[in-house]
Design goal:
Layout (H helix, E strand, L loop, with lengths): L5 E2 L5 E2 L24 E8 L3 E6 L5 E5 L3 E5 L4 E6 L12 E6 L3 H4 L1 E10 L2 E10 L12 E8 L10 E3 L5 E5 L27 E5 L16 E2 L12 E2 L2 E4 L6 E4 L8 E5 L5 E6 L11 E2 L2 E2 L18 E4 L11 E6 L13 E5 L4 E7 L5 E7 L6 E10 L2 E8 L5 E7 L6
């Protein structure tokens, strides 16, 4: 099984094909398996179908696997901390999809898991809080359900991103479910993310106990909590919503250095465009009316968003969706300032699962964005997630891959800093 994040010509997502040669149209051309000078890539552990990971303050890596297991790697051994396989739907893109550690983990030991729960035969997406003990075990009875009943109608586009902001609130990425939850259309015809009374196709924002932050953008006389129902009555607005009009915000990342806070949301596209969105509270990013900076399923109708909608800061095309082309944006991470030399220090990196590559987002003097290849030929299904973590007395970039059944790899820098 593999995450089927790429749309096919018939509208259904498919497992990722073997990437072709490393040349990426319109981008820096790197030799096969090459990295910029001074960088090296190495496998650190084998793990079954890893979807995401997080580091705790004490240096342990917590890893989610799609079938429903949570692993903890302490740098030497891997421990199965939690096994939810028996209650996890894991078909196609369903499964255990995301993980976050509490900002106060050192004192409360809380972790947060996004998974597709088998609710008596009905698959629903759920976010739960658990307690991770010092011995790297999780007692299932510590589960506190924070968000529930988000229908996974077609097993596609579940989202799964979990991140804490500097404000201490938990941000949750939810996909549009592939097909409309109320029996409407599928794929590009699925307009469920347009519904403000449903949690699908959104970035949600809650407190670590599941409450509603007092400055969430959709609070008012018609707003209601939807976190345990997934859907409210038409005409109501879900108070958990922070951003909307998204297709499948599988991964997103906060800039640790930006003041005020800056959040980039990677939204997996349908047939034509992948996109990176700069988060603005309450903003509508247009799906299913828009894809990238264009009308849905168009490469030519790109004259600007309709009133009230927001374009991504950057989008890239599927390059005709040939095998080996990039067509499924996944992980995102900001390089810690001073860790790597220019032009990487503080840069935003993002991965594409379909072509197995990591790119650097580049902004020119006019404020226009482009991409340049950083690492290519990382393997089939690389990278479902990327992020920085400890490596000796420094840090390195880690990425999760489905290559060879599943692995975690590390890209480190050992060269001299640029002057």
């Amino acid at each position: 099984m593999a995450l089927g994040l790429v749309a096919s010509s018939c509208g259904a997502s498919q497992p990722v094909p073997e990437p072709e040669a490393s040349e990426l149209p319109g981008e820096d051309k790197l030799e096969a398996n090459a990295l910029p000078a001074g960088f090296q890539d190495e496998i650190v552990l084998e793990i079954q179908e890893p979807t995401g990971f997080e580091f705790t303050p004490d240096g342990r890596m917590i890893i989610t696997s799609q079938p429903g297991q949570l692993f903890v790697w302490n740098g030497r051994t891997t421990i199965t901390a939690l096994d939810l396989v028996a209650v996890t739907c894991s078909r196609i893109e369903q499964g255990m999809l995301g993980i976050a550690a509490d900002p106060d983990f050192a004192t409360n030991r809380f972790i947060y898991v996004y998974y597709t729960f088998d609710d008596e035969g009905e698959c629903v997406n759920r976010v739960s809080r658990f307690t991770l003990a010092d011995e790297s075990r999780v007692d299932p009875s510590t589960e506190k359900v924070l968000i529930d009943k988000i229908l996974s109608v077609r097993a596609y586009h579940n989202g799964g991103g979990l991140e804490f902001g500097k404000d201490g609130y938990l941000y949750v990425g939810v996909g549009d479910s592939g097909c409309d939850y109320d029996g409407g259309g599928c794929d590009g015809r699925n307009d469920a993310s347009r519904d403000l009374h449903a949690l699908v196709g959104k970035i949600l924002r809650i407190t670590k106990d599941g409450g509603i932050p007092p400055d969430n953008p959709f609070l008012g006389p018609d707003s209601v909590e939807c976190r345990l129902s997934g859907v409210a009555a038409p005409g109501k607005v879900c108070e958990e919503t922070y951003l909307w009009g998204l297709r499948n915000p599988f991964r997103f990342a906060f800039d640790p250095h930006a003041e005020p806070a800056r959040l980039y949301v990677n939204d997996v596209g349908q047939f034509v465009w992948e996109e990176i969105n700069l988060a603005v509270p309450g903003a509508d990013y247009g799906w299913n009316v828009r894809e990238g900076r264009c009308a849905n399923n168009s490469e030519e109708d790109c004259d600007g968003p309709p009133e009230g909608m927001t374009d991504p800061i950057f989008s890239y095309s599927h390059e005709r969706n040939r095998p080996g082309d990039c067509a499924a944006i996944t992980g995102g991470a900001f390089v810690p300032e001073g860790l790597w030399p220019e032009p990487y220090s503080g840069a935003y990196l993002f991965s594409d699962y379909r072509c197995g590559a990591i790119f650097r987002l580049v902004e020119d003097e006019a404020g226009e964005f482009s991409r340049t290849a950083f690492a290519v030929d990382l393997g089939v299904g690389s990278a479902s997630d990327i992020g920085f973590g400890p490596f000796g007395d420094t840090q390195a970039l880690y990425y999760a891959s489905y290559e060879g059944g599943g692995r975690i790899a590390r890209i480190s820098y050992g060269g001299e800093p640029s002057s």
